[in-house]
Design goal:
The chain has 734 residues and is an alpha+beta fold. Strand 16 and strand 17 (679-685) form a beta hairpin.
Length: 734
């Protein structure tokens, strides 16, 4: 490049030319314009964002000290008359006995702070570092499971904000902004100690416990002020997921979480190394919990299966219908002082309980089945946990038997349990904790329902003494194969409803193979009977003709009736698409309450009505909180329902269900028996009520030769109810 004087002068003159000046001015003008535009957009954005933020926080609910302070009231459950008390719901050990902060051990306060909000004392209600950490973890891991909520935010969430179902992302953002705003506002009006006090008396700690005092009584049977450091860490470990970290049912998972609590406390210098080491080696803590749990189970008031189910459905409805979070729903049920009016008729309930527990209604050879859990604490502090399944495997392998948990007497059951425990111990000094139930077999369930209203009038979930709350309710929690009760629902209802068949339609009973495997369909009577009417097929429960008609109706239509008309929740549309479904051969089985509702639809002129167990929920001041109205749908034509009823009257008068015939009132119904006689059903109705009885072994043993006890129970229950209620003898509407 030429740096000479002459060339330099020429370049200077060029730069000073008019064209160069214009270009420079143009560039500066463009840059100024862009800057002004961006500045304007920024100002507009800030103003718009500010206005949007203000509109969100303006909609935030008002909170006061009373809003955030936990309250405690007993919830009462009433029969359908609204005055007869049939149960109560209270927190374990107490109905949330409130504890001031100075009555809560410092170790327990520190344990919650360490695991939930380590910067609790520094932040102003929201923890920006925690939020950034949670966001970074979510982005890098692809999971948003780690939260950034402070203790203040959690208190507000539990006491103020419900979790509305099906919220949009924008609604969640608005709620989170309001939560932040209220957290900051709360910290300006309440000191840290009061916030922590409210939080520790509000938090859900599993097993229907809300607050640390209830948890302490439930898990250790002691006042909260008596808890050791190890026990404090165990309770604090529950918070993130009360089901997953339940120290009774999942001690191993709670143990891992408890170690994290202690590690955090050590890192935050809340405890010394010596205290940490001592607490960490306290492996006996879970044995103490099992002992306390056994004592609790023995001392508690035992609710009926019906009341147990109320607890379940009310929590579900508070969440799905009113937008409560699970914690809020549990708190409302066990501490909210609700008044729940159920559909139960106490007279009908008593009759059902008496007949299901009357041994003379069952085969004389009562057997006994073991269920439950066993925990072994070894001398080195390690623990192992077992249950009835591992017991069954031991018995089957040791004694070469088919069923390992059912015995001919309670003494033999207890002897085998003790024998098995001895094989688990490594030292005579090992500590053994058990939570075992021995139930009489065969078992049975019954549901009685008003077909017109959907009201469940009575329900019993098992035979024998009920020894604990929230125990297995076989009527709503056990799925069993439906057998021939499905013939009507899958085949003959749609045949009359959409195929223009009648009860006199002929089906030829002849050799017929399943299309799926080529095997012959067999009748329970053996052989074939030629031309049969649909009426006869229903009365005598013909298999071959049912399968042939089902193929004509098509499995797709049959399953549509099961799922969309009768609302069975357990149908597998893929695996249950074969022909055997019409005979009750399905993947998962069905619940008694759903079977009862399906037959109630026929009794109700073809209109399906959702079965409900309660009608109204009132708050502790008597204000209506929720009215439970059952959903309905047309399941079949009224003419179809009338014809099916007429055919099933024949089942009772001279068919397979003749043992269920009532005196003084007409009835209709269908029997159901599964392959190898593992499940027995009778579902039937009168002009007033529908009821289903299931009978069988919990471990699915065959009951060959004992196929009538369920019919006897149905007849006795329904006869007693109709006599007691003084129902008039009216005919079915045709």
């Amino acid at each position: 490049m030429n740096y000479g004087r002459t060339n330099t002068s020429r370049r200077r003159l060029k730069l000073q030319s008019k064209n160069a000046k214009k270009k420079r001015q143009s560039k500066r003008g463009f840059l100024k314009t862009c800057l002004l535009v961006f500045l304007g957009l920024g100002i507009v954005g800030l103003i718009g964002g500010g206005l949007l933020f203000k509109s969100i926080i303006d909609k935030a609910p008002e909170i006061t000290d009373d809003t955030l302070k936990p309250s405690a009231y007993i919830t009462t459950v009433f029969a359908n008359d609204g005055t007869t008390e049939i149960g109560t719901f209270v927190n374990a050990g107490s109905n949330r006995v409130y504890r001031k902060l100075d009555a809560i051990p410092q170790d327990l306060q520190d344990a919650f702070v360490a695991i939930e909000d380590s910067r609790f004392q520094e932040h102003n209600g929201i923890d920006l570092k925690g939020i950034m950490r949670a966001a970074f973890t979510g982005i890098t891991s692809g999971s948003l499971s780690q939260g950034g909520s402070t203790i203040t935010q959690q208190l507000i969430k539990n006491r103020v904000f419900p979790d509305f179902p099906n919220e949009t992302t924008w609604q969640k953002v608005q709620r989170k902004v309001q939560e932040w705003y209220l957290a900051i506002k709360t910290e300006k009006t309440l000191d840290k100690d009061k916030i922590l006090e409210y939080y520790l008396n509000t938090i859900n700690l599993g097993q229907n416990t809300l607050g640390v005092q209830s948890a302490s009584m439930r898990y250790f049977k002691k006042d909260v002020k008596e808890l050791t450091l190890s026990e404090c860490a165990t309770i604090a470990a529950i918070t993130q997921n009360p089901t997953l970290y339940n120290p009774i049912t999942n001690p191993d998972k709670n143990l891992a979480r408890r170690e994290k609590v202690l590690n955090n406390m050590l890192e935050e210098k809340m405890i010394s190394q010596e205290e940490y080491d001592s607490a960490l080696t306290d492996k006996d803590v879970y044995s103490r919990i099992q002992v306390a749990n056994t004592q609790f189970q023995e001392s508690q008031t035992i609710n009926s299966y019906f009341v147990d189910e109320i607890a379940k459905v009310v929590v579900e409805d508070l969440c799905s219908q009113l937008g409560y979070s699970k914690e809020q729903a549990q708190e409302a049920l066990y501490s909210g002082g609700l008044k729940i009016v159920t559909t139960q008729d106490t007279t009908m309930q008593q009759i059902c309980e008496e007949e299901l527990n009357r041994d003379s209604n069952y085969p004389s050879n009562i057997n006994w089945t073991v269920t439950g859990a066993i925990s072994i604490t070894h001398q080195d502090g390690s623990q192992n946990h077992y249950d009835h399944n591992t017991l069954g495997n031991y018995v089957k392998q040791t004694y070469n038997v088919k069923y390992g948990t059912t015995f001919s007497s309670q003494d033999k059951a207890n002897a085998m349990i003790n024998e098995y425990i001895e094989t688990l111990k490594t030292s005579p000094e090992d500590r053994v904790d058990t939570n075992i139930t021995i139930s009489p077999q065969p078992q049975a369930t019954i549901v009685v329902m008003d077909q017109y209203t959907g009201y469940v009038k009575a329900m019993v979930g098992g035979r024998g003494e009920k020894k604990s709350n929230m125990s297995l309710n076989r009527a709503t929690q056990s799925v069993r194969q439906p057998g021939s009760c499905f013939k009507v629902l899958t085949t003959f209802v749609p045949a009359l409803d959409v195929k223009d068949n009648s009860l006199s339609t002929i089906i030829k009973d002849e050799p017929y193979r399943y299309k799926s495997n080529g095997e012959y369909v067999k009748n329970h009577w053996g052989g074939y009977r030629g031309d049969l009417t649909i009426r006869y097929c229903i009365e005598q429960s013909a298999n071959v003709c049912t399968v042939k008609k089902y193929a004509e109706v098509t499995p797709a239509v049959g399953l549509d009736y099961l799922v969309n008309k009768f609302h069975f929740s357990t149908i597998d549309k893929v695996n249950d698409s074969g022909e055997s479904a019409c005979l009750g051969g399905i993947t998962n089985g069905v619940y008694n309450i759903e079977m009862t509702a399906a037959y109630a639809a026929i009794a109700n002129g073809g209109v399906y009505t959702e079965p409900i167990l309660y009608t109204h929920i009132y708050d502790h001041e008597g204000n209506l909180l929720y009215e439970n109205l059952p959903a309905t749908n047309v399941a079949m034509k009224q003419s179809t329902a009338s014809l099916i009823t007429d055919a099933m009257r024949g089942v009772v008068t001279h068919g397979t269900g003749s043992m269920t015939r009532l005196s003084g009132i007409p009835s209709a119904g269908k029997t159901g028996t599964t392959t190898d006689d593992c499940d027995f059903w009778f579902s039937g109705y009168t002009p007033y009520l529908t009821a289903s009885v299931w009978g069988g072994y919990d471990d699915h043993q065959s009951m060959s030769g004992s196929s009538s006890f369920h019919k006897l129970i149905w007849r006795k229950v329904m006869q007693r109810i109709h006599d007691k209620m003084k129902y008039e003898s009216v005919k079915f509407e045709m």
